[in-house]
Design a protein that fits this description.
Layout lengths: L3 H24 L8 H4 L11 H14 L9 H14 L7 H25 L6 H46 L4 H11 L5 H14 L4 H11 L3 H16 L3 H30 L1 H27 L1
Length: about 300
C-alpha cells in the first residue's frame, strides 16, 4: 500500500503542474489579442459552452492558432467546416481554431506522456509518443464525431413527436410557421431539434424564405430522416398538397421504418447473444449443476 503513495503524489504533482501551466497561459499570455483577430475571421456568435473547447480555446488562440494557416488543403478545411456544422458548434469554434486545437493536442499529449514515462520510469520507446501525438491530432475529430452521433440520435428520436405536433397544430388552423413557434415555445429547452426549429424561425424572421430556412436545417443536421422531412415539405409547397396530411403521412412512415429497424435489431440480438452464452452462461450452469456431484463423488471415494 505504501508503495502506491509516491505514484499518487507524482500524478497529483503533474496534474497541478499542468493546471498551473494552463492558468499561466490563459491569464498572462492572454493579455494580447493579435491572434484573436484570426479566430474572429468567421464572425461567430455567442453559443453554448463545450467544456473541452472552452478549456483549450485560450491556449489555442495564444499558442497554436497562428500556425493553422499552414494547412492549405481546401478539401480538408471544407471537411472540418462541415463537421463543425453537423456538430452544432458553429457559434463555438471555427475552422482555424479547430486546426489549432489539433496542433495543441498533438503537442501536449506526447509531452504529458513523456513526463509520465520519465516520472514513473515506464520505459516506453520513442515511437510510442509519435503514436500518441497522432492520437492527439485526431482527438478533436473523434470528439466531433461523438457529438454528431449524439445530435443525430437525439434529432431522430424527437422528430416523429415534433411531426405529430405540427400535424395537429396545422389541422387546428395554425399556419406552418405559427405551429413551429408554438412547439418550440413548449418544447424542452435541451432538445436539439427544438433548438434547430427555433433557428429556422429566426432565419425566416430575418428575411429568408421557408424553403431556404428548411434547406439550411437539412444542411445542419446529418440525418436522413430530417432530409426526407425537408424534401417532403418542399414538394408539398410546390404541388400545393395539404401540409397537415403530408405531415401525418410522414409521421406514420417514420414510425413504420423504426418498427422494422427494431425488428431487425431484435433478430440480430438473438444471434449475437449466442457467443456470450457459449462462453460464460453455459459453463456457469454446468459448474453449478455438476460441481456438487463431482465433489460428492471425489470425497465419497
Amino acid at each position: 500500500m505504501f508503495e502506491i503513495v509516491p505514484v499518487v503524489l507524482l500524478i497529483s504533482g503533474l496534474f497541478l503542474l499542468a493546471l498551473a501551466v494552463y492558468l499561466f497561459c490563459s491569464t498572462i499570455l492572454g493579455a494580447g489579442s493579435d491572434q484573436a483577430a484570426l479566430a474572429l475571421a468567421e464572425e461567430k456568435e455567442e453559443g453554448k459552452k463545450v467544456p473541452l473547447i472552452q478549456f483549450s480555446k485560450p491556449l489555442v488562440q495564444r499558442l497554436t492558432l497562428k500556425y493553422s494557416n499552414l494547412v492549405k488543403s481546401e478539401k480538408y478545411r471544407k471537411k472540418v467546416k462541415q463537421k463543425i456544422l453537423y456538430s452544432g458548434l458553429t457559434k463555438e469554434i471555427n475552422t482555424n481554431e479547430f486546426i489549432g486545437l489539433q496542433i495543441l493536442w498533438g503537442i501536449f499529449f506526447p509531452i504529458f506522456a513523456m513526463i509520465l514515462n520519465f516520472g514513473l520510469q515506464m520505459g516506453y520507446p520513442f515511437f510510442v509518443f509519435i503514436g500518441i501525438s497522432g492520437f492527439g491530432i485526431y482527438f478533436p475529430h473523434f470528439y466531433l464525431d461523438s457529438l454528431i452521433a449524439r445530435r443525430s440520435k437525439s434529432v431522430e428520436r424527437d422528430l416523429p413527436f415534433f411531426i405529430d405536433l405540427l400535424a395537429l397544430s396545422t389541422e387546428a388552423g395554425l399556419d406552418f410557421i405559427s405551429a413551429i413557434q408554438k412547439i418550440t415555445e413548449k418544447a424542452d429547452k435541451k432538445s436539439i431539434l427544438a433548438e434547430e426549429f427555433h433557428t429556422v424561425l429566426k432565419e425566416i424572421t430575418l428575411g429568408s424564405s421557408r424553403k431556404e430556412a428548411l434547406a439550411n436545417l437539412s444542411a445542419r443536421l446529418r440525418s436522413g430522416e430530417v432530409q426526407s422531412f425537408v424534401t417532403m415539405l418542399r414538394d408539398a409547397d410546390e404541388t400545393g398538397a395539404s401540409i397537415a396530411e403530408t405531415l401525418k403521412a410522414k409521421s406514420e412512415q417514420i414510425r413504420y421504418q423504426r418498427f422494422n429497424k427494431a425488428e431487425e435489431e431484435g433478430a440480430k440480438a438473438s444471434q449475437k447473444i449466442l457467443i456470450p452464452m457459449m462462453i460464460f452462461i453455459i459453463p456457469a450452469v454446468m459448474i453449478t449443476v455438476f460441481a456438487p456431484i463431482a465433489l460428492q463423488f471425489y470425497y465419497g471415494k
